[in-house]
Amino acid sequence: MKKSETDLPGVYIIEPQVFGDQRGYFMEIWSTRNFEDMGLQYDFVQDNQSFSAQKGTLRGIHFQNAPMAQAKLVRVTRGAVLDVAVDLRKGSPTYKRWTATELSAENKRMLLIPRGFGHGFKTLTDNVEFCYKVDNLYSSECDRGIRYNDPDIGVDWGEVTEELLSQKDTTSPLLKDSDCNFVYGEI
């Protein structure tokens, strides 16, 4: 596996080693040993998968407040997305900054997003299967969102069709109006 830095410290692109031949391919998605060799220590406890039928579907910006904050290892198994991580830690040198990368079944990249960051994606193709590991269990009490078009964050999603957003995503508060409780150095 190969780890590459992004514009946000702690958010990494992970590229698995792919072994292929005329039959297809094999790759390791997660290995405690390989991640520890890269200086990354995570104990993932839950796997999730979503399906988006239409190109242009936007999901996010999502997170769970502490004490149930989650790190995520995200990837696409069918189709392609623009994947976004946003630093939501008050006091961070990169507070409110975001980074985006294309994840696809073809490029097999993964994005590692630590606790304290919001996450979202926009589908670039129809029929997207999106899979991710998290290091904390789901908590409905701590489940939160920030409005996808928050002007203080300014994510460039390209053209967005409101019909392809959930009610949660269109009614989530702006960051300045949210109860996001992430503090740099504490999460």
Please describe the topology of this protein.
Blueprint: E1 2-5, E2 12-15, E3 18-21, E4 24-27, H1 32-37, E5 46-52, E6 58-64, E7 72-78, E8 80-87, E9 98-104, E10 110-113, E11 117-123, E12 128-134, E13 143-145, H2 167-171
Antiparallel strand pairs: 1-2, 2-10, 3-4, 5-12, 6-11, 6-13, 7-10, 7-12, 8-9, 8-11
Structure in words:
This protein starts with a strand and ends in a 16-residue tail after the last helix. The protein contains 2 helices and 13 strands, in the order E-E-E-E-H-E-E-E-E-E-E-E-E-E-H. It has a 6-stranded antiparallel sheet, with no helix packed on it. The chain has a single domain, classed as Jelly Rolls (Sandwich). The chain has helices spanning 32-37, 167-171; strands at 2-5, 12-15, 18-21, 24-27, 46-52, 58-64, 72-78, 80-87, 98-104, 110-113, 117-123, 128-134, 143-145. The protein has 187 residues and is mainly beta. Helix content is 6%, strand content 39%. The protein is globular, with a radius of gyration of 16 Å.
